[in-house]
Backbone:
């Protein structure tokens, strides 16, 4: 198993968790960054980041305060990455 398949499998498995869960968001961010930085696949990186962002924003109002605080950091990072990657086109 190579790095990409391990990252993708981990990310896909994390989708059973709450969209605002720190593990799920961390794996989504890691997967997106890997697509961008290692695979030079900007479109797939943006797709993964956008999906995680949309899912987490839809669920953010239904989480406890601690989860909210942690998710907010990941959400901001995902937004920053999407902005940066969109400028590369």
Residues:
């Amino acid at each position: 198993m190579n790095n990409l398949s391990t990252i993708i499998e981990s990310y896909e498995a994390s989708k059973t968790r709450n969209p605002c869960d720190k593990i799920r968001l961390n794996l989504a961010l890691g997967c997106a960054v890997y697509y961008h930085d290692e695979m030079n696949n900007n479109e797939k990186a943006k797709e993964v980041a956008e999906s995680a962002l949309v899912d987490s924003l839809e669920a953010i109002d239904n989480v406890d305060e601690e989860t909210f605080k942690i998710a907010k950091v990941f959400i901001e990072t995902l937004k920053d990455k999407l902005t940066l990657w969109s400028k590369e086109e």
User: Anything to note?
Assistant: The chain has one domain: 3-87. The chain has a mean pLDDT of 94.
